[in-house]
Specification:
alpha+beta; four-stranded antiparallel sheet
């Protein structure tokens, strides 16, 4: 699966907006997506470092319109914890010299509020 197929849309509620300060972002994701796939998709799409992913399956609710009864679709929700203070990575090169990682990560997802 490609990243655009895994992350369907952000979930913007009062609770999820309050958790943004702590680095928690909530997304509706594909039902068959795994935690590593979700983490890789968020890192690729938003250029952030993902610490942890929690997922939950939401069952559809019974709804009624007049005399007709039906069920809403079930879906999967992912709460993604991002690193709000990314550190530069240091590693040892050949010859024993230390080098710092040049990959920069964002500390927040700016596109989240605009969606």
């Amino acid at each position: 699966m490609i990243a655009e197929d895994i992350i369907i849309k952000p979930i913007i509620t009062e609770k999820s907006n309050g958790e943004i300060e702590q680095g928690k972002y909530t997304f509706k994701v594909a039902k068959n997506a795994t935690k590593p796939e979700i983490a890789n998709a968020v890192e690729k799409l938003f250029n952030v470092k993902v610490k942890k992913v929690n997922t939950m399956n939401i069952d559809g609710k019974n709804k009624r319109v007049g005399v007709h009864e039906g069920k809403t679709a079930s879906w999967k929700k992912a709460i993604v914890f991002i690193d709000t203070d990314p550190q530069t990575i240091t590693y040892t090169k050949k010859g024993g010299k230390e080098a710092k990682g040049t990959k920069k990560y964002n500390s927040s997802i700016e596109e989240f509020m605009g969606a």
